[in-house]
């Protein structure tokens, strides 16, 4: 079984478009079928493009005629999974052969109504694997090679050519007896479960009524299906027909009781097969519905938590708005109170706390004014707006006043204990 991190890495390597949804589906399937493993492989898709694909490979347990077999399968996912149906294959080992049916072709590709009707989120990998297991219970897709076929395929006889090697076939043999799918030898298959190997190749065909004429309207033995019953055992065979009760007046006809028993057995098997198929699909759908319900309940809890957080934030914002409105009202009232009085003079906007400090400020301002005046006189002299004599006379007067202001300012600072 692969971990969620490994599954996510494989999905990323396969360029999956919906990693979160696909990961959740795959992890759910792996939790139920622990013999499957996640990985990537190069695969030729039905659209004709070969690219890296995510795949589940391993075995699924299938109960066939009272024994549990591990059927090797591979499931390839599209990059749009779970919104597109997967592609499933049965992978027989060297000791197995594929039994073709309406659900499995000779290449091992699986065909199921569940795949044709695939709709997300009603369908998932867990339901698909469960349906595959139920369908394989009715018609086992693989069978063990017979010992004679395996030995002849490995070592041809001296009288046979290289091209006449016999090929093992999964179809019933022409023998009139009914072979059983029980073990024919130890170590026949690499996937036994509970000590039971895969059924032999002849288990799919048996004829319980060997003396039935060719013109009988009821099913022949060769058409009998190997569907297991509800308890996993093979359907009961009718009692043997004696020569006195089965043959009538030398024409080989069968007694009416035997015909009735044969027809009832065939009808019972067909009804049982259809019932299993319907129940298997319904069971998978119910499992998918339960999973969807769990997801919806989880989403409901998340939505409730989000609503509670939003309600808390709304209350906090409402409190902040109330505080802001109160402050705004207070500021508006202060502005209205301050706007009713006349503005003070600019010179009185900044005033010293003590008269001595006020005198320092005044002398400092006059000192700076003298500097500005001397600068203005120099500019006027450059522009020849005043004569040199006027310039010198005015500078002398301004310098005398500036000296008095500076001396007064130093004396005040000395008196106030300030640095000079």
From TrEMBL:
Q: Record's Gene3D superfamilies?
A: 6.10.140.820, 6.10.250.370, Ubiquitin Conjugating Enzyme (3.10.110.10)
Ranges for the region named Disordered are 153-193, 221-258
UniProt entry tagged with the keyword Mitochondrion = no
Tell me where it resides: Endosome
Coiled coil (UniProt feature): 293-327
Q: Which residues form the UEV domain?
A: 3-146
User: What are the UniProt keywords, alphabetically?
Assistant: Coiled coil, Endosome, Protein transport, Transport
Give all residue intervals belonging to the SB domain.
Answer: 354-420
GO terms (BP aspect): protein transport
Might you report a single GO cellular component term? endosome
Stretches of Low complexity bias are at 153-166, 221-234
Composition bias type Pro residues, residue spans: 167-182
Record's family? Belongs to the ubiquitin-conjugating enzyme family. UEV subfamily.
Which protein, by its recorded name, is this? Uncharacterized protein
Source organism of this protein record: Caenorhabditis briggsae
């Amino acid at each position: 079984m692969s971990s969620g991190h490994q599954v996510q890495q494989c999905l990323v390597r396969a360029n999956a478009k919906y990693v979160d949804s696909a990961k959740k589906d795959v992890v759910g399937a792996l939790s139920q079928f622990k013999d499957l493993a996640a990985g990537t492989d190069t695969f030729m898709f039905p659209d004709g493009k070969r690219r890296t694909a995510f795949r589940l490979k391993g075995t699924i347990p299938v109960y066939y005629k009272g024994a549990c077999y591990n059927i090797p399968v591979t499931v390839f996912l599209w990059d749009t999974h779970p919104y597109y149906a997967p592609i499933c294959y049965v992978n027989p080992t060297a000791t197995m052969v594929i039994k073709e049916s309406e659900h499995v072709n000779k290449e091992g590709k699986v065909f199921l109504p569940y795949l044709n009707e695939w709709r997300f989120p009603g369908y998932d990998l867990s339901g698909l694997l469960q349906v595959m297991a139920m369908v394989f219970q009715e018609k086992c897709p693989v069978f063990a090679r017979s010992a004679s076929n395996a030995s002849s395929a490995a070592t041809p006889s001296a009288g046979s050519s290289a091209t006449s090697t016999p090929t093992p076939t999964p179809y019933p043999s022409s023998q009139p007896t009914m072979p059983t799918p029980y073990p024919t030898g130890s170590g026949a298959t690499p996937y036994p479960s509970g000590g039971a190997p895969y059924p032999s190749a002849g288990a799919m065909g048996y004829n319980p009524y060997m003396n039935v004429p060719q013109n009988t309207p009821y099913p022949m033995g060769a058409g009998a299906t190997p569907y297991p019953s509800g308890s996993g055992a093979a359907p009961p065979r009718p009692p043997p027909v004696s020569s006195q009760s089965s043959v009538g007046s030398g024409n080989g006809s069968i007694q009416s009781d035997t015909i009735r028993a044969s027809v009832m057995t065939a009808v019972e098997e067909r009804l049982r097969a259809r019932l299993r198929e319907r129940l298997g699909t319904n069971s998978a759908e119910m499992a998918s519905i339960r999973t969807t319900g769990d997801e919806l309940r989880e989403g409901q809890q998340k939505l409730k938590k989000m609503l509670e957080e939003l309600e808390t934030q709304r209350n906090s914002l409402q409190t902040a708005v109330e505080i802001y409105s109160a402050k705004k009202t207070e500021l508006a009232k202060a502005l209205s109170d301050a706007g009713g009085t006349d503005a003070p003079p600019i010179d009185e906007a900044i005033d010293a706390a003590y008269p001595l400090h006020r005198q320092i400020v005044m002398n400092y301002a006059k000192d700076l004014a003298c500097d500005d005046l001397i600068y203005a006189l120099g500019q006027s002299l450059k522009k020849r707006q005043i004569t040199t004599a006027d310039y010198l006379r005015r500078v002398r007067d301004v310098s005398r006043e500036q000296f008095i202001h500076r001396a007064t300012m130093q004396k005040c600072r000395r008196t106030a204990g300030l640095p000079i």
